[in-house]
Design a protein that fits this description.
The chain is α+β, with helices and mostly antiparallel strands and about 250 residues long. The chain folds into two domains: about 5-30 and about 40-85, no CATH class; about 95-215, Up-down Bundle (Four Helix Bundle (Hemerythrin (Met), subunit A)). About 40% of the residues lie in helices and about 20% in strands. Strand 3 and strand 4 (about 60-70) form a beta hairpin. Zinc ion binds next to loops.
């Protein structure tokens, strides 16, 4: 039986919504399975993919249903996973645990519609970032300025960080102003983009440069080694998203 709708969490509406199926298709039946059309009384497993649209905002979803059945007898869905949009933010390789905790809490706060708490957690992630990078200054404003002055983080990103800081300050001190869903979503994205840049992409780029340098001088002794952290490589293909543990790859 094919579903016409799915109940899914829409990150744009930030609530549970009904999404209407507009397209569907089957993946290959797995190699250990048989073609359900040919063999009677044989078990089969397969995947069923559906594209659905949020009834409120029209945002798209890709849903995979794992099917298990016996031809002519029954077919049942054993698992249902939303493949897109990915929940929990991007995977940030090399993110120190101290920062990852705040980001994870910001996500949980956002999902629970606690936008003030989300802003506070984003600001705390920045505090933890400054500590990890040994930024100097007596408050967050000055510590961010220090990171900019030392060239550790580009000016444009520092501009984003100040935006996050200011919303976080409002959430902490301004009892008359509530952080809106749009502001919470934006600063969460800015925070993650900043962390992705510092901990994943920068490390990856240094590794890329070192690799190319090594290729250019294959016979030279003391070929440049990637100075990236050992976990600076590509993400392991585990299905989890969000933060990963590992030593800080920056100093
Ligand atoms: Zn929606």
């Amino acid at each position: 039986m094919q579903k016409e709708t799915f109940d899914v969490f829409c990150p744009t509406c930030n609530i549970l919504v009904e999404a209407k199926v507009i397209a569907r298709g089957f993946g290959e039946y797995r190699s250990d399975a048989v073609n359900p059309m040919d063999e009677v009384d044989s078990e089969y497993h397969g995947d069923h993919y559906s594209v659905a649209l949020c009834r409120r905002c029209n945002g798209p979803f890709l849903v995979r249903e794992a099917l298990y059945g016996v031809p002519g007898e029954f077919e049942t869905v054993t698992d249902e996973v939303v493949l897109y949009p990915v929940s929990g933010g991007p995977r940030i390789d090399g993110l120190p645990e101290s920062i990852g905790r705040s980001v994870a809490q910001a996500h949980r706060s956002y999902a629970a519609s606690s936008y003030d708490a989300c802003a506070l957690m984003c600001r705390r992630a920045l505090e933890a970032l400054c500590k990890t990078l040994s930024a100097k200054g007596r408050d967050l404003d000055r510590r961010l300025a220090d990171l900019e002055a030392s060239g550790r983080i580009d000016s444009r990103m520092i501009h984003w960080a100040h935006g996050v800081r200011l919303v976080g300050n409002e959430a902490a001190h301004d009892v008359d102003t509530a952080v809106t869903v749009e502001d919470a979503r934006d600063i969460l994205e800015f925070t993650e983009a900043l962390l992705l840049y510092v901990f994943t992409l920068d490390t990856k780029f240094r590794s890329f440069e070192a690799r190319r340098k090594g290729r250019a001088q294959p016979s030279a002794t003391g070929v440049a080694q990637p100075n990236a952290a050992p976990n600076g490589g590509p993400a392991t293909p585990s299905g989890s998203s969000g933060v990963t543990e590992g030593p800080p790859s920056v100093s």
